[in-house]
Amino acid sequence: MVTIISLFITEYKALYYKALTSHLHKKLLEHDIVHCDETVVQVLKEKDKAPHTKSYMWLYRTGNDDKPSIILYDYQPSRNGDHAVEFLKGFKGYVNSDGYFGYNKLSDMIRCGCWAHLRRKFIEAIPSKGSQDAPLTLAEIGRNYCDQLFHIEDSLKNFTPEE
After folding, report:
1. Can you give the pTM of this predicted structure?
2. Which residues of 50-78 are buried (b: 16+ CB within 10 A; e: fewer)?
3. d(CA 95, CA 34)
4. Tens digits of per-residue pLDDT, 97-117?
């Protein structure tokens, strides 16, 4: 009897979370801004996949728009951009992402680049200096512009869109 009750509770929870996730997904698509990123995850003992095979966790997060924030994760066995296309079907706003070419498959949306990812590329391009008196490199200047932009954004974060 305990096993049957435990199984019922487990299945009930699964249905509850599936309904909740579905509702949040619908609400996410109603926002004007969505941030997207994907990262490698390794899943051990996954059916039909070797333990060292890459899988991906896709992240979708609403922007800062005075509505409650929504963050959803979508596990996928690959990095194919079609996963983002399927997840964001019906979305008509701005998509903020890194430069991964898989996001080029998104249509009916306005793609925006991620400044944090761009800043990382500037940092990777900064050569190690021999002298502290050396002039700034172009990569350092680019990083500094990003830092200035982040500072301005931080100072404006409590303003409304109208302000």
Report:
1. 0.78
2. eeeeeebebebbbbeeeeeebebebebee
3. 5
4. 998 999 999 988 999 998 998
